[in-house]
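Quick one: co-fold with uridine-5'-diphosphate-xylopyranose.
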Amino acid sequence: MTAVNISVIGGTGYVGLVTGLGLSEIGHQVTNIDIDQDQVNQLNSGNCPIYEEGINPVLKRNLASGRLKFSTDLESSIKGSHVVFIAVGTPSLPNGNIDLSQITEVANQLRLCIDTYKVIVIKSTVPAGATKLIRKILTDGVQGDRFDIVANPEFLREGNALADFFFPDRIILGGDSDKALSIIKSIYEPIIERDIFVEGIDNPPKEPYLVPVIQTDIASAQIIKYASNAFLATRISFINEIAEICEQVNADIKEVSKGMGYDSRIGHSYLEAGLGFGGPCLEKDLSALINTVNQDECETELLRSVLNRNDKQISSVVKKIERLLDKSIHNRTIGVLGLTFKQGTNDIRNSLSIRVIEELHKHGAVVQSYDPVVKNEILAIHANVKPCDSAYAAAENADALLILTGWKDFLSLDYQKIHSSMANPCIVDSRNLLNPSDMIALGFKYLGIGATGHDS
Ligand code: UDX
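Sure, here it is.
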């Protein structure tokens, strides 16, 4: 593999940071560019703003080797790069459409500093039409073809992002220039050939075959990304609906998921019933996909119901607490365990825990919370939550304990101690994390999702 000079724009965000770290780790010379001077300074001194398994050793190693640096100087980085990854944010607008302002801003700046031929790689998740817009901005008033565009969507899961980068299930490359596609393919060569061992993270067993590379057109590449996230979300909403059916017939959703997952046509992943899907991507991408189409021609009924089912999980959890507290949670104290949208990350963007807390407040409950990584930051969102130093403090004198994020730390708590300290020992486990029989044996009233426990 030949080392390539690469710029990653949006280099301190989740996707940009992991992309820059990954590309430098496999031998490229990378500059991660961002407008946030403070984050750039922090990262240059080896401090990582995000909580992610294994990220610190990879960051320190690549800074020390000189292969990675962070900068706010877009112009000189771009001029020295052959390949430019765009990984800026594409948040949702209130109507569910995608806000492309960061992308168009970047394209406007790039237009002024593309001096020699470059491959522009779109990592950000954007609707198919966005690439036309980027191309139009980049060519506005400029002679000749100085660039090609390649769509290379990411499939990184927070908490597992580095492993997902180095050991992907597939690499998707969309574009119409063979030259550009082969440049990007060669950049990923060590990953494609699985010729890689990364110190500091869990390396999976080496597979005997190459990573599949799907070379396609730009629109198809982008729809592959949207459809993959929509499909994962659909599985989650599907299993949550089956969980509700289980509650009616007193079946156990964990057994049902296990039994279904052994069917090789179905598989086990994304069949965990619970609070639903949160985080910055699944819901946003699903809404964007729905908004991409003309609803007069294609109603996207199924996708809409996936979103509706997800919203329903919030009220269903609140109803379970009401059920355990004789209908009223007004002025009752609820201990909340877990604020992040899932375990293994410090990300609270679109966390369903936060939405449940909103509902609890609407019903007049008093909330005290604990999360292993999110502390007083919760006050910026909910000033009237009491953040606690430990899970025990969050449970103390509470009328109900509500598990909202599946942190493994919550498995090893002393539930006997928690039982003695609560005003009313009952648990709603929205992630089906605990063993219901153990909790019931300790004397808790316990409700999971999908009849995995009974309120004794
Ligand atoms: C997702 C996609 O998986 C990833 O490919 C894409 O690049 C970004 O969006 P991420 O948002 O990090 O990744 O989290 P993911 O692990 O997919 O979980 C999303 C949500 O679904 C979480 O709230 C999680 O708790 C929930 N979930 C997941 C379930 O409720 N049940 C499951 O079985 C799996």
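If it helps, The chain is about 40% helix and 15% strand.
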